[in-house]
Design goal:
The protein is mainly alpha-helical and 706 residues long. It folds into 4 domains: 54-122 and 144-224, no CATH class; 265-435, no CATH class; 444-587 and 687-706; 609-679, no CATH class. Helix content is 58%, strand content 4%. It contains 30 helices and 11 strands. Helix 5 (150-175) crosses helix 7 (205-220), helix 13 crosses helix 15 (384-391) and helix 24 (554-566) packs antiparallel against helix 25. The relative contact order is 0.06.
Length: 706
């Protein structure tokens, strides 16, 4: 028919050839319900093979235009304010659908024969999609940031990914010269992928690349299994693992929401909810043994680790909720897992132990441990046929034969009952929490700081993990502040000092935004003691916060005293400095300030109350206090005048490398005269960094950040 929209001069819309008896559609290709291999059987009336699995049917001619429509739908986000306000996101939603349309045009110009085959939704896909959507709704309701639910806000962009991946699937099939099989296969790829990694708006184009990678792995990485060609890898697992590798190699995890996704899932009731969703999957597809074995492996190793070290393997929890998600909804794809009971058990044990090995390996490499749940899946996918062969030979084969002697459905129900009983024990003992999120001892920054002081195994790394988790999930100001302290110490950023200070300032700034008093003090200390500030406005905000709290004493009063003593956003005023230092009472750094004011201001100020503190610090090899004590002895201020003793303490300060003492000694100290010269602010000793989580040393002395 001339001018019909169904045809063009260069594109041939061909009738679909007779379907092959063993389709490879989605991840259920060639499977019966429950993921069992289907026999090679001719098609029967009603669109099913004799074995009961669906076969593709020729689709109506108009379906060839669906990919074009889907590509056009990908332009819809351009109408939203979120996309319009972000140039990177805006151009992503111009370029990605534009590329799909150009690809479609290329096929038109090439005169490719286009055909479409259809398959009804496959049980594995719609069951999996249903439980994933339930998880999105539950998790999304509980996860809120400043009154916004990020998962719900992300929903429109997730929907666009469906349109993209279905269009990509069609265009890829036609480019390879075969019919596009319109089925439910891309659906679980999109839903599963978005449970673990989102790219931030500025980098959202890579989200489409990650989805494409999963589909390409399914299309090109195949093997012959049970007499048919099928994909090796769980598609979403393959795309996620490849993306994780790139993010780790480039240090680009902050371009994604991966940290937030891994930590915010720890919501009340999440273990019960995931267990319930997992039971649905296990009922239909008999994958209970995989989840059960994986959980047992992780529980057993964690208990042994805690008994041996006195701390917790997974830092803030006995069993990470993100890993619990992985062993229920990521690794349990029936089409890329073993068919035998022994094989499934070994697969599950491999996931549980593999998670632990990867978790530890990533930690020692300095990479985010949160990727540990992704890597065992593709590795185990490669071992599926070997596991099944091993499960059907020798002693394991005899065990597997007896194990599978009964009804598979009844046997699976026994497995489900055993797993449910085990999970009930984990709940009853508090190993995992139920409807109320019971605080775990390791989910505490103070716990891991104390463990680090006591030299517990791997405490420094776990401290960074827990502080990062509290910052990412709860946006706690004091947790951001702690990350700043750890950055300066090199635990977070092992780069040069300039980079560490810059990173610390960023964390302190985030802590200030969340109301952390300690972060305000540390931002002020960075400027006063390190001469580092990101902006005058930020330094001024920190100063105003600390000035407002000076009357309470403590570190705030000491810092206010230093500001008025040396100048730092306010005019120098010795009287105000002294008043602030006195508010700090017994703070050793405030005492030093009072001694400096007394030495510089003549005989008006009585330094006797501070002499013992200066002597004690000098005897503890503090070069700065050695110098102050030498000046006090030379002048007879607060102590009896003793020029010989003054010379001895000056020499001690020089030996300790205190620069102001060296300068005085080189000028006239060699003659026996000890003169006081006010040290520059940058050469003053700095107190420990302010922290909301002070700990005690083994000797019982309280300590803050260092």
């Amino acid at each position: 028919m001339r001018g019909s929209p169904m045809k063009s001069a260069r594109t041939k819309v061909a009738p679909t050839p007779a379907p092959s008896p063993s389709p490879s559609t989605g991840s259920q290709a060639g499977l019966q319900a429950g993921g069992q291999p289907a026999a090679q059987s001719p098609a029967q009336p009603g669109g099913q093979s004799a074995a009961g699995w669906p076969v593709p049917r020729p689709g109506p001619a108009w379906l060839v235009h669906v990919p074009t429509l889907l590509a056009l739908l990908c332009f819809l986000p351009l109408t939203t304010l979120r996309v319009q306000q972000n140039a990177h996101l805006f151009w992503t939603f111009v370029a990605v659908p534009g590329a799909l349309l150009l690809w479609r045009l290329g096929l038109l110009v090439a005169g490719r024969t286009l055909a479409v085959e259809t398959l009804p939704p496959i049980k594995q896909h719609y069951v999996q999609a249903s439980v994933q959507i339930c998880l999105y709704l539950f998790w999304g309701y509980h996860w809120q940031v400043d009154g916004v639910r990020p998962i719900y806000a992300q929903a429109p962009l997730i929907l666009v990914q469906f349109a993209f991946l279905y269009a990509f699937d069609a265009l890829l099939a036609w480019s390879r010269g075969r019919p596009w099989r319109l089925a439910s296969g891309p659906t679980p790829i999109v839903l599963s992928t978005n449970l673990f990694i989102w790219f931030r708006d500025d980098w959202f184009a890579w989200q489409f690349a990650m989805l494409s990678l999963g589909l390409l792995g399914k299309e090109f990485l195949k093997w012959t299994k049970d007499g048919r060609r099928t994909h090796v890898f769980n598609p979403s697992g393959f795309g996620l693992a490849c993306t994780a590798t790139v993010l780790i190699a480039t240090g680009s995890s902050d371009l994604t929401w991966v940290k937030e996704l891994a930590t915010t899932i720890e919501v009340p009731g999440i273990y019960l909810f995931l267990f319930g969703l997992g039971m649905v999957v296990q009922w239909f597809f008999r994958v209970t043994l995989m989840t059960f074995a994986a959980a047992l492996a992780m529980v057993a190793v964690n208990l042994l680790y805690t008994w041996w070290t006195g701390v917790y393997l997974f830092a803030s929890t006995n069993l990470p909720a993100a890993a619990f998600l992985g062993l229920h909804l990521l690794m349990t794809d029936p089409s890329t897992s073993p068919r035998s009971n022994v094989g499934r058990t070994l697969f599950g044990l491999g996931y549980g132990l593999g998670y632990i090995v990867v978790f530890e390996a990533l930690g020692w490499l300095g990479a985010p441990e949160l990727y540990a749940k992704l890597y065992p899946v593709p590795i185990l996918n490669c071992c599926v046929q070997w596991l099944d062969r091993m499960a059907r030979s020798g002693a394991l084969g005899r065990l597997n034969a007896r194990w599978e002697a009964g009804s598979p459905v009844r046997t699976n129900r026994v497995h489900m009952a055993a797993w449910a009983a085990t999970f009930a024990v984990l709940l009853a003992t508090g190993y995992v929490y139920g409807l109320d999120r019971t605080p775990h001892p390791g989910d505490s920054i103070a716990f891991w700081k104390q463990a680090q002081v006591e030299g517990r195994h791997d405490a420094a790394r776990k401290l960074v993990m827990v502080a990062g988790s509290h910052a990412a999930a709860g946006h706690e100001g004091d947790a951001y502040n702690e990350l700043g302290i750890l950055s300066i110490g090199g635990e977070v950023d092992a780069e040069d000092e300039k980079t560490r200070i810059k990173s610390a300032a960023d964390w302190f700034g985030r802590g200030m935004a969340r109301g952390s008093e300690a972060a305000h003090e540390n931002m002020l200390m960075l400027g006063l003691y390190r001469g580092s500030r990101r902006s005058d406005a930020e330094f001024g905000a920190a100063l105003q916060n600390v000035l407002g709290r000076a009357q309470r004493g403590g570190r705030a009063a000491q810092l206010v005293g230093l500001v008025f003593e040396t100048g730092g956003g306010v005019p120098v005023d010795a009287g105000k400095a002294l008043a602030a230092y006195r508010l700090a009472k017994d703070d050793p750094w405030a005492m030093r300030g009072i001694v400096r004011l007394g030495l510089a201001g003549g005989a008006v100020l009585d330094l006797a109350p501070y002499a013992a503190a200066m002597r004690a610090a000098a005897e503890a090899a503090d070069g700065e206090c050695c110098y102050y004590l030498a000046c006090m002895l030379q002048l007879g201020r607060g102590v009896a005048k003793d020029e010989a003793e003054a010379k001895r303490w000056l020499l001690r300060a020089v030996e300790l490398g205190y620069a102001p003492a060296v300068a005085v000694y080189e000028k006239d100290g060699k003659t026996g005269v000890v003169r006081y010269q006010a040290p520059p602010r940058k050469q003053l000793g700095a107190p420990p960094w302010s922290t909301a989580f002070p700990v005690s040393t083994p000797a019982g002395v309280a300590r803050g950040g260092s």
